Amino acid sequence: MKPTLMLLPGLMCDRTVWEPQIEALQDEWHCVVPNYEFASSLKAMAHHVLDEAPDRFALAGHSMGGRVALEVMRQAPERVVRLALLDTGYKALAKGDAGEKEIAGRMRLVKMAREEGMRAMGADWLQGMVHPDRLDDEDLCGRILDMIASKTPEIFERQIHALINRPDGGEVLEQITCPTTFMCGRQDGWSPLERHYEMAELVPGSEVIPIEEAGHMSTMERPEAMNAAMRKWLA
Q1: With the C-alpha atoms ordered 68, 71, 72, 73, is the resulting torsion angle positive or negative?
Q2: Which of 10, 97, 206, 210 maximizes the CB count within 10 A of its CB?
Q3: Strands (E), 72-205
Q4: Domain extents in the chain
Q5: Buried b (16+ CB within 10 A) or exposed e, 76-111
Q6: 138-149 and 118-126 helices cross at what angle (nearest 10)?
Q7: Across the beta sheet with 80-86, what order do the strands follow?
Q8: pLDDT, averaged in runs of 10, over the chain (235 residues)
Q9: Under a CB-based contact definition with an 8 Å cutoff, are residues 196 and 85 in contact?
Q10: Residue 36: which residues within 8 A CB-CB, separation 6 or more?
Q11: Distance between CA 229 and CA 183 in Å, rounded?
């Protein structure tokens, strides 16, 4: 019986984000991508992951999925045999002007999704999500936009609510004892590589693997490099 690898998608994402890794790893791992689109908090998303997972499993989270993974570690660290956090963060919403600016930016996209549709919102959001050199890659951008367009503004608003109300994950990181790797596109402008080194300092023995020539959607942008990083982590 193959061990289970839980793959947690990020904001407005689903199995599409993980397809290259599932294809590369499915001979050795039972890959499961939970769907927590019904949930409006990271805590509820993590609870759903734990309900769907076996007693022991490997866990990888991308973007918002990385924050869900930290909530899984908060709720049931003893069940996770190894952890990978990709293109993500750990801090709560900043106080003051910085936090207000983030909320305003996120709510602008929610308004756009409701008034102009999910694909239009996705096209705007995509500008900062992939390596600048890939914005004219019709296949890559088309797959990302198709994924976003398959969601609803209601799902988007629930997930934005979850992110705005995210808890701080610093204490969780400090308590992690399982083998842990951080992976991030070197050109990720949304969740910078430097932040992953910052997180790694909180987790003894952890490792950071930069994915070269990739932005925030690193699993799709550079699948071969990400597959190699995942294999290294899982070994």
Answers
A1: positive
A2: 10
A3: 80-86, 180-185
A4: 4-93+168-234, 97-160
A5: eeebbebbbbbbbbbeebeeeeeeeeeeeebeebbe
A6: 140
A7: 30-32, 4-8, 57-62, 80-86, 180-185, 207-211
A8: 97 98 98 98 98 98 98 98 98 96 96 97 95 96 98 98 98 98 97 98 97 98 98 97
A9: yes
A10: 44, 45, 48, 49, 68
A11: 8
**DSSP tag of 133:** G
Which residue is it, tokens 């002007």?
97
CB 196 within 8 A of CB 182: yes
DSSP at 216: S
CA gap 69, 83 in Å, rounded: 8
State the pLDDT at residue 17.
Answer: 98
**pLDDT for the residue numbered 108:** 97
Cα–Cα distance between 131 and 148 in angstroms, integer?
A: 18
Residue positions counted in the chain: 235
Q: How open is the CA angle 49-51-56, to the nearest 5 degrees?
A: 80
- Phi, psi at 86, each rounded to 5°: -120, 130
**Residue recorded with tokens 């991508």:** 33
